[in-house]
Write a structure and sequence with these properties.
Strand order of the largest sheet: 2-59-58-57
Number of strands: 63
Largest sheet: 4 strands, antiparallel
Structural class: mainly beta
Helix content: under 10%
Shape: elongated
Length: about 650
């Protein structure tokens, strides 16, 4: 069962400009990348939709610029261009919860165009002449006036979650969730199901070859491979030979008017596959594609002699200039990464190295306290990275597919999983001594594992540990703390050989984070922060100002203690007795991680990369003007991979979130 966390919000939008001089947060130069949901091409312009709005590239992805002014909901899940061959094309964006938006100036500014859209979850578009169709969770809507107004057109449509469209001559096709394919021959006035031969009715994508000819070929991507119809959908034939991953998220025909057209399929978990014979056979086409979850495909033929193929993944944009044979990441300026953790090596050195883990984009490295970032994924075969740890000169990355080790500051990686019976890594801690360092890994469902030889071998150390879902670990001298998802905190004084629950005074059993400051142990829970001054024997709640919100990350620097609650960062200078929000300039997005580097505090966000603020300047008040929004978003839950979070986003501002059910 899908569990949803529900939030209500009040927002104060800030009108000042973020700079270091006036003590606001500023976005770092990277990490670049992030989850891409859709592409749209208009001449030399390539648009990418993401969880962080729309980005524009005018140079085939070499650089990207955010184009979001007026787009009050940044979760863009659909894009299309109307009138792309005219002097003034229109760009439409469909959002998850706020309807449709249009731009008449290549994304420089946006205007909401949702009048008549009774369902605000716009997940697909189609353009047929002057008609624009929007697919939503509530069926199909038609606009004949460039989005100024919409009307429902669902007669005959028995499944109303419309994921994809195709236009083939005078016919319009709609792909639905669980209902298969529907065809309309009268601009959506009536629909007829056409599923003969279609053994899977979860439709994700269409592609058309020869759309304006007398014998077009229609392709449909489903949760069970690709199907072909050469009779306008009257019957379908499976064409999945060679497809080793059959959840098809996108389809694309490239070079349709050449002697050797190609069909491409973007899959969930399998990268890109290519076919040169209308899908009769498929070949993996993912060399260089570092992320295998492909949600978007596009081709830019503005230079016909050198077409450019793009793949949008959960780890950014990749470019191929050789028909998919090889791929190169092109993410510069794409500030859309989900940063899950930080780590630092050479903390006392003149130039310490800072590392950032991301969900989908792998690991990044900074040598200037987080201002600039570089991708370091060579050998990292799983880029869904959550925890990081530094032990001596070794760097460890925990992924959803096990542990990876780098002995050269992330330049190269190798798997280090021998003995790990559970490879979904959620947390790390380094204990022991310099002579015999001990690395502990907390897992999702497998408890804690210990390595005494830098990850060469692992052993489960779970005696007494009631909950095997270990979200946080912290080592303090001879003591090791484990924070679990449902049974609170456990303490081991013998390197994990045995564990004892230490929850006296702890009124929340759901643990997200630890921070150590001298003899103080702080723990972030689902209802705020708790403090122990006696190694967990007893706990006291220290959450005044946090309003009992879930605390996902903690960090300490001298007398300053920092905490994150969904989209806000808080500061305490009195061991958590009271907290003050320090959000000026911070774009409202989910805050996953905290780190202190040099004289700066860094936050890692979900969909907004890294943000930086000087430690010495944390007391500037916010001059805000209140505004009211309610924008619901569904995101993967970094706390619990098996659930999602229903989350709220808006324009730059400070956001108050109240958790009703989690």
């Amino acid at each position: 069962m899908k569990h949803i966390a529900l939030f209500a919000l009040s927002i104060a939008v800030l009108f000042s400009t973020p700079t270091f001089a006036n003590a606001q947060w500023v976005q770092a130069n990277g990490p670049y990348g992030g989850s891409i949901t859709r592409f749209a091409v208009s001449g030399p312009n390539l648009f990418a939709g993401s969880f962080n709005g729309v980005f524009l590239s005018t140079n085939n992805g070499q650089t990207w610029t955010a184009v979001n002014t007026g787009l009050i909901n940044p979760h863009v899940v659909a894009l299309t261009v109307s009138g792309k061959n005219t002097a003034s094309p229109l760009l439409f964006a469909g959002t998850f919860g706020s309807g449709a938006f249009v731009s008449t100036n290549n994304g420089t500014s946006w205007k909401e165009v949702s009048s008549g859209l009774t369902n605000a979850y716009v997940i697909s578009f189609a353009v047929s002449g002057t008609n624009i169709f929007a697919g939503t969770y509530g069926g199909v809507f038609l606009s004949t006036n460039n989005g100024s107004s919409w009307s429902a057109c669902n007669t005959g449509l028995t499944s109303t979650t419309v994921r994809a469209f195709a236009v083939c001559g005078a016919d319009l096709f709609a792909g639905t969730e669980s209902g298969g394919v529907f065809r309309s021959t009268n601009n959506g006035k009536n629909w007829t199901a056409i599923n003969t031969g279609l053994r899977n009715t979860n439709i994700n994508a269409f592609a058309v070859s020869g759309a304006n000819t007398s014998s077009p070929t229609l392709f449909v991507g489903t949760n069970d491979g690709v199907f072909l119809s050469s009779n306008n959908g009257t019957s379908w034939t499976a064409i999945s030979t060679g497809l080793t991953h059959t959840i098809i998220r996108r389809l694309l025909v490239s070079g349709e008017h050449t002697s050797s057209p190609m069909l491409f399929a973007g899959t969930c978990g399998g990268g890109v596959f290519a076919s040169t014979n209308n899908g009769s056979d498929w070949t993996a086409s993912s060399t260089g594609l570092l992320n295998s979850d492909v949600a978007a495909l596009a081709v830019n033929t503005s230079n016909p002699s050198s077409p450019m193929l793009f793949a949008g993944t959960c780890g950014g944009v990749f470019l191929s200039s050789d028909n998919g044979a090889n791929w190169t990441p092109v993410n510069n300026g794409l500030t859309n990464t989900a940063v899950s953790a930080f780590a630092q090596s050479g903390r006392d050195a003149q130039s310490p190295m800072l590392f950032a883990a991301t969900l989908g984009d792998g690991v990044f490295r900074s040598t200037n306290n987080g201002i600039d970032w570089t991708t370091i994924n060579n050998g990292l075969t799983n880029t869904n990275v959550s925890p990081l740890a530094v032990s001596g000169t070794n760097l460890f990355a925990g992924t959803s597919g096990g542990v990876f080790l780098s002995m050269d500051n992330g330049t190269t990686w190798a798997a280090a999983n021998t003995g790990l019976t559970n490879t979904n890594i959620l947390s790390f801690a380094v204990g022991g001594s310099n002579e015999v360092p001990m690395l502990f890994a907390g897992t999702y469902g497998g408890g804690v594992f210990l390595s005494t030889n830098d990850g060469t071998n692992w052993t489960a150390v779970n005696t007494g540990l009631k909950c095997m879902d270990v979200r946080a670990l912290a080592a303090s001298g001879p003591n090791l703390f484990a924070g679990t998802y449902s049974d609170g905190v456990f303490l081991s004084s013998n390197n994990g050989a045995s564990w004892t629950a230490v929850n006296s005074g702890l009124t929340s059993a759901r643990i997200w984070a630890f921070a150590l400051s001298g003899t103080n142990v702080f723990v972030g829970t689902s209802i705020g922060v708790f403090l122990s001054t006696d190694n967990g024997t007893s706990w006291t709640k220290v959450s005044s100002g946090l309003a009992d919100k879930p605390v996902s990350a903690l960090a300490a620097s001298g007398a300053k203690l920092f905490a994150t609650t969904q989209d806000s960062v808080f500061l305490s200078t009195n061991n958590g007795t009271s907290w003050t929000a320090i959000n000026t300039g911070l774009a409202p997005t989910y805050v996953n991680a905290l780190a202190v580097s040099g004289t700066n505090l860094l936050t890692g966000t979900y969909g907004g990369g890294v943000w930086i603020r000087p430690l010495s300047q944390m007391s500037v008040s916010n001059n805000a003007s209140p505004v009211t929004f309610k924008l619901e978003q569904n995101y993967p839950n970094p706390f619990n991979p098996s659930t999602e979070i229903n989350f709220v986003l808006a324009e730059r501002g400070t956001v108050q979130l109240d958790v009703f059910d989690m």
